[in-house]
Amino acid sequence: YIVCKGAFCVVPLSSAKSYTNTLPGLSKMSCRKWDMFTLLLSEDEDSTIRMLVVAVPIFVFTMYATMSSPHVCEYGFITDCIDSLRPPPPPPPSNSSSDTALHLYNQTEVSNGSKPLFILANYLNESGEPHPQEEQKIMVSNLDETENVLAQARAAITEARNGNRTKDSDYVPTGPMYWNAKAFHRSYLEMEKHFKVFVYEEGDPPVLDSGPSKSIYSMGNFMHAIEDNDHFRTKDPEKAHVFFLPFTVEMMVPYERVSGDFSPMRKNVQDYLNGIAARYPYWNRSRGADHFTLTCHDWGSSLSLPYPHNNSIRVLCNANTSKGFKPAKDVSFPEISLKNGFIGGLSASKRSILAFFAGGAHGPIRTDLLEHWENKDEDIQVHKYLQKGISYYEMMRKSKFCLCPNGNEVASPRVVEAIYTGCVPVLISENYVPPFSDVLNWKSFSVELSVKDIPNLKDILMSVTPKEYIRMHRRLKQMTRHFQVHSPPKRFDVFHMILHSVWLRRLNIKVHDDLITSHRNLAIMSDEFSRLAIMSDGPSICPMNLGYEAFKPDYTVLAAILKSCCALLAPKLGTSLHSYVVKQGHVFCQVTNQGLLNMYIKCGMLDDCLRLFDELNHCDPVTWNIVLSGFSGSNKCDSDVMRVFKMMHSSGEAMPNSISVATVLPVRARLGDLDAGLCVHGYVFKSGFQQDTLGGNALVSMYAKCGVVSRDAYAVFEDIVHKDVVSWSAMIAGLFENGLVEDAFLLFSSLVKGPTKSNYATVANILPVCASYDKSVAYRCGRQIHS
Hints:
Layout: E1 2-4, E2 7-9, H1 16-27, E3 35-36, H2 45-55, H3 58-65, E4 71-72, E5 78-79, H4 132-137, H5 144-161, H6 181-194, E6 197-199, H7 219-227, E7 242-244, H8 253-256, H9 263-279, H10 282-286, E8 291-295, H11 299-302, H12 306-310, E9 313-316, E10 331-332, E11 353-358, H13 364-373, E12 380-383, H14 392-398, E13 399-405, H15 414-420, E14 424-428, E15 447-449, H16 457-462, H17 466-479, H18 494-507, E16 509-512, E17 517-520, H19 522-525, H20 531-535, H21 555-568, H22 571-583, H23 590-602, H24 606-615, H25 621-632, H26 638-651, H27 658-671, H28 674-687, H29 693-705, H30 709-719, H31 725-737, H32 741-753, H33 760-771, H34 775-786
Helix pairs in contact: 5-6, 21-22, 21-23, 22-23, 23-24, 23-25, 24-25, 25-26, 25-27, 26-27, 27-28, 27-29, 28-29, 29-30, 29-31, 30-31, 31-32, 31-33, 32-33, 33-34
């Protein structure tokens, strides 16, 4: 049993010759640090397996137990301490579609018929020595210099956030179009100074892109630009900050879309990534977190392996958060049509058409738009097909607003076309993250419209004043440079903006070579490099990074973050955390479920709260009270509060307590529903809560607001054993509201003489009582209270 910095190799137990030949071969490998552990080999294979488990060092076992998938260590062995004890997978077929893939699992037959136990790599020849050509491919990396450069860049950006503007002879970002113009400029300059990209050259077309693409998505233009760029591209992977995997799904799709079978595509990508992981240490070092791919569709990465989808940086046109796009690590790529990509249009004052759209009814949003506005208003030019002789781009050049509803996917090339023609884009989409939104404040130069507001489209656009539109149009023209395509690329154009988005995400990653792992640093994400601090005023997407930690957060951490989501009123973060809770198996934790319920309530998502509540197997009084408080705080759900209270009472698993009573009674008082209040009082009396301060105060307030203060409210008030200032204030307010002015003042006098101290609420309740007397009496009483 050999441990090479966390990787182990087990040979067939029944072959002594193979065992003795393997050890010298491994000892000749250029390992910086490795230890040998000798195991007593037994003829009984089961006992040997048990000994193997015991002999695994605890730090190695812990590392692999906290990682969700097998890893390839930097010496080329695919390892996993759990899977090594299971039957090995079958060898890959010999007619693999990619010659670059190095299949590391190799099944070994045992001559005596015993069950084989192995993880033996193809790197060893028959004599147990590594193949010379493979030994040259195995590299060892040093991250200290790379991480120091990134640390200096982080410090410079942090300093620039509130500092002076940086001089630039070409362009200085300014204005409300940027979340933080000074931070963005400094970050961009740091990227120009330090950022290096290593492009893998392994693979054959169509796995590897073969040149610039002329399609509407123009992905190949970026690939071609990065491959020909001497400034950002490095041939030395040790100097690289990120690694580009240049496979393109676009060139694979035409071969597979007809059949609908994506398994060949999955095989291509999987073989390509396996080859990269086998030849280089960098993928395994960070679990792909510092690698990025580029594709308008997410088929390739999501259908291949879990790593590309979960860990690597994906530059996608289809930036749909409901389909797996994660703004914390993924980049939104603008769809650009270069066929007619001219720039410019009429000035803001000369645009005669209020809004324009022409396109097919792809998807429900476009169908809804066409149904409401197609050929129904001269100001809102919405067409499925344009008449012959009418130019699509000329219509955009003459329109103030260009409607950009999503079709079958959330992104649309109309967004960039509108920017090119100086037409303010109106984004009508759901779950869409606009390009470069971690830097650009889209609300300053575009209009975001929800689907439910489509019928009110004209009213919303007409509410934009001419002055506001001119300002918006001016900002849009300034933003055009960030979406232009140049060959060769120019500063601040779309090529550099995409690179900057990748650069920002690399700043959020720290790779630790000594642990052969990486993590996205939550401290950084929650400070200067999250959208919350560096580029925007919106909530950060820090919770999504929890999935990249080697040590998973427990329920206490999740509960704390959910509480923060409530304070920030950030429902998208909360729903992302809910998905994470389900994936990590915390669905039966009451603390986590209570945090989720509270988050949904505070964010106004009562339907989601009720849906989650119905799925819970067991609810304690705290859980029931959270739901009760949520419905009682919404005026639209007053009728549901009593229903939930009755459900709690009839469930038998958690009987209502004084908190439940204090939650439901104010709602009945607000509605003047004395009958329901009497029912609750009956339960309080039977349960013995009548003398409880909290329940008694709620009953006093309820009876007072229902107009039965002199009898019922006062009787409950007298039964409260430990009256607090709330008890006195509620009774005084109830007496005054029901016209019993003298009784209210007498009760206040009793309060002053007693041990309970009044507060501002009590004074606020008694001053109107004084004002109801004659002027002389009111003045005298008021002076006494003032003193």
